[in-house]
Amino acid sequence: MGLSSSLSIAIFLLYFTSVLAGPDKKKPDYLTQIDGLDTDYYRKTCPKAEEIISKKVKHWISKDYTLGASLLRLHFHDCAIRGCDGSVLVNTTGSERYAKASKTLRGFDVIDDIKAELEDKCPKTVSCADILTAVARDATHEIGGPYWSLKYGRKDGRKSLAEEAEGVPMGRESVTGLIQFFQSKGLTLLDLVVLSGAHTIGRCSCGSIQYRIYNYTEYGLADPSIDLKFLNFLQRKCRQASEYTELDAVTPTIFDSVYYKNLQQRMGLLSTDQMLYADSRTGPLVKALAAQHNLFYQQFGVSMKKLSKVQVLTGDEGEVRTKCFAFN
Ligand code: HEM
Q1: Cα-Cα end-to-end distance for the chain
Q2: Which residues line ligand 1 (CB under 6 A)?
Q3: Are residues 312 and 251 in the same domain?
Q4: Measuring CA to CA, how many Å separate 303 from each of 40, 70, 102, 151, 297?
Q5: Does the structure show a pLDDT above 70 at 32?
Q6: Does residue 249 carry a pLDDT above 80?
Q7: How many domains does the chain have?
Q8: pLDDT confidence of 10, banded at 50, 70, 90?
Q9: Are residues 66 and 19 part of one domain?
Q10: Same domain, yes or no, for 225 and 266?
Q11: 256 marked ligand binding residue
């Protein structure tokens, strides 16, 4: 099949599935322009903010490549609860960081380090929510993913509750549950499938998947949707819950569309990943993205930009923290 015909199939699928996803519950496009965010938000008050952030991200990832994936995930967990308001960063008893769903989150030191430098250069100016948004973008780019432009002006929230953070999807949900969760944030079916592609990098604690590989059925058998060779590999690798295994077993450190190809080979690590291929609403998109790396690469930036605007606080709806781990 020629490139142009496969592209038109993909475009058709994207259109078709966004229609299937139902009406976008968020503001229509012309109104999202007035989201209170601005490309030039720090132009006068902290013109070097983006430069400072990107240098720091480069520095940290050059010391530890695995931080790239962790920083991307941190932004998702932030936006998934109370919107992108830096609530995941707060370190007080009972805050989101203390939820079970936050147990393997990493990268907090990177944010604190960046915040310290920004407070030095432009005190009380750059919010933690904006820092985390830019960090996720820069980290993705640094490990070979796409780059996208951002608007700024998010304020930091004044609430962070562990029990709310238990609502972040952790891999045992149904596809319907995932679709509903994403829709409640104004994100479509397409955003769900594309953003799940973040699992092309990074790792997963064995504790999160042991139920799939050892004792899934009532007869104590593994999840039958897992490829047998892959199952064998996982059963040997994941004896201890505290061990880790790669989310994309084939190209774990490369930001590519092989994650989707793995799903076609029954090699999705999380049950939620694997089910995206089996489900008739999401399966056609998995196929289109598996076939076209460029489509994934380009759409990932588009969907991340949408993610970064979920329920943002602006103006006096929030504060600019001086330390990202504590309310002012
Ligand atoms: C669609 C629903 C999602 C589910 C059910 C899910 C679930 C998970 C789980 C269970 C892990 C491993 C946690 C552990 O260590 O045990 C993980 C890791 C990860 N997730 Fe997701 N996730 C979802 C969406 C996303 C999104 C939207 C992004 C980013 C845009 C993302 C980025 C990541 C990354 C990069 C990692 C690896 C982190 C690391 O290596 O430190 N996930 N996810």
Answers
A1: 58
A2: 69-70, 72-73, 76, 104, 106, 169-171, 178, 195-196, 198-199, 201-205, 208, 247, 270, 272
A3: no
A4: 21, 18, 23, 14, 10
A5: no
A6: yes
A7: 2
A8: low
A9: no
A10: yes
A11: yes
Consult the annotation and say whether 169 binds a ligand.
yes
Q: Are 17 and 43 contained in the same domain?
A: no
Q: Which atom of ligand 1 is nearest to the CA of 173?
A: 5
Give the pLDDT confidence of 252-297 residue by residue, as tens digits.
999 999 999 999 999 999 999 999 999 999 999 999 999 999 999 9
Q: Is pTM beyond 0.90 here? A: yes
Q: Show the domain range for 232.
A: 3-26+171-307
* Domain assignment of residue 328, yes or no: no
Q: Which amino acid is present at 111?
A: I
CB 129 within 8 A of CB 85: yes
Any binding-site annotation on 96? yes
pLDDT tens string 48-107: 999 999 999 999 999 999 999 999 999 999 999 999 999 999 999 999 999 999 999 999
CB-based contacts of 285: which residues, under 8 Å, 6+ apart? 13, 14, 17, 189, 190, 193, 194, 276
The CATH number assigned to the domain holding 124 equals: 1.10.520.10
Cβ 180 vs Cβ 48: under 8 Å: no
- How many A from CA of 236 to the centre of ligand 1? 22
Point out the residues that are catalytic.
77
Is there a domain that residue 85 lies in?
A: yes
> Do residues 133 and 252 both lie within one domain?
no
